[in-house]
UniProtKB/TrEMBL annotation:
GO terms for biological process: organic acid metabolic process; sulfur compound biosynthetic process. This is Alpha-ketoacid dehydrogenase subunit beta. Keywords: Oxidoreductase, Thiamine pyrophosphate. It comes from Halomarina oriensis. GO terms for molecular function: oxidoreductase activity. It comes from the Archaea.
Length: 333
């Protein structure tokens, strides 16, 4: 442990920050329930819930059957009753059987009941590619959930943000889809306070200030974007990097203000390009800041194909060189 600003901290990986965030909220609020496949005794497939069952018991940390629809539906019922369930899906690609429960019930409960009930619940899932996993383990389908009114969608990129955003999501009165970029689960460490804290939902973070172009990204793509920005600085290209963190609600104010400063933009995400959120961000820029635009917005994304198996995985994901080439293209237009 170290002391930072007189506050006790630990040097945690992102997945450890998930576990620490869950521990803090379980300890803080007796209504918080953690549930999912193998989250109890086993501690989860990525060990994100390791030790929670030992500390809080099987009435607070619940091993469920392998039935994603049942997990989500049970969580909706718990939330309507007044509990605060945190339901884990082992991989985001396994969430599709739960889609009906999430979009038809969790997302609509407040509106359907005219505010009498809310679904204060979180659905957690490791998402994204890069770990050489088989089919259904590597998709980036965040746009599915952003498109659904009534859901909030959060994707952290650092351990500090992970713990704070997870706590804010659990305390939120409405359902939150919390997607964890498993590619960077153990990629690096960061000082994280021991005490519970929240990071406000709906607020982007400017990771690097710049004047030549604004690059918008989230999750695991934040790291190669930052690396590309540092390399381009050596060539005199000053890149502003904005980590959106919350995709719904999206921080359009920060997007627009950044773009007005630079006049150029790129969006980096690993989801396929067609229907991806790069299009929504581009439309927002067109509507709110068209007269500031000096070049077409560049989309640096995954391809419109099923996520490939191992040999082609590195070609599919935007990496530092492809990100840098896309940024350079927008700057030199």
């Amino acid at each position: 442990m170290s002391t930072q600003d007189q506050q006790s901290t630990q040097n945690l990986t992102l997945v450890q920050a998930v576990r620490d965030g869950l521990y803090g909220e379980l300890e803080r609020d007796d209504d918080v329930i953690v549930m999912g496949e193998d989250v109890g005794k086993n501690g989860g497939v990525f060990r994100a819930t390791e030790g929670l069952w030992d500390e809080f018991g099987d009435e607070r940390v619940i091993d469920t059957p392998l039935a994603e629809s049942g997990i989500a539906g049970t969580a909706v019922g718990m939330a309507a009753y007044g509990l605060k369930p945190v339901a884990e899906m082992q991989f985001s690609g396994f969430m599709y059987p739960a889609f009906d429960q999430i979009v038809s019930h969790a997302a609509r409960l407040r509106n359907r009941s005219r505010g009498r009930y809310t679904a204060s619940m979180v659905v957690r899932a490791p998402y994204g590619g890069g770990i050489r996993a088989p089919e259904h383990h590597s998709e980036s389908k965040e746009a599915f959930y952003v498109h659904e009114p009534g859901l909030k969608v959060v994707i952290p990129s650092t351990p500090y943000d992970t713990k704070g955003l997870l706590a804010a999501s659990i305390r939120d009165p409405d359902p939150v889809i919390f997607l964890e970029p498993k590619l960077i689960y153990r990629a690096f460490r960061e000082e994280v306070p021991d005490d519970t804290y929240t990071v406000e939902l709906g607020k982007a973070a400017v990771r690097r200030e710049g004047t030549d172009i604004s690059v918008f990204t989230w999750g695991a793509m934040t790291r190669p974007t930052m690396e590309a920005a540092e390399d381009l600085a050596e060539d005199g290209i000053d890149v502003e990097v904005v980590d959106l963190r919350t995709l719904s609600p999206m921080d359009t104010e920060t997007i627009v203000e950044s773009f007005k400063k630079t006049g150029r933009a790129a969006v980096v995400h690993e989801a396929p390009q067609t229907g991806g959120l790069a299009g929504e961000i581009t439309a927002t820029i067109q509507e709110e800041a068209l007269l500031y635009q000096e070049a077409p917005v560049k989309r640096i994304t995954g391809f419109d194909v099923p996520f490939p198996l191992y040999a082609l995985e590195d070609y599919y994901l935007p990496e530092k060189a492809r990100v840098a080439d896309g940024i350079r293209e927008a700057v030199e237009f």
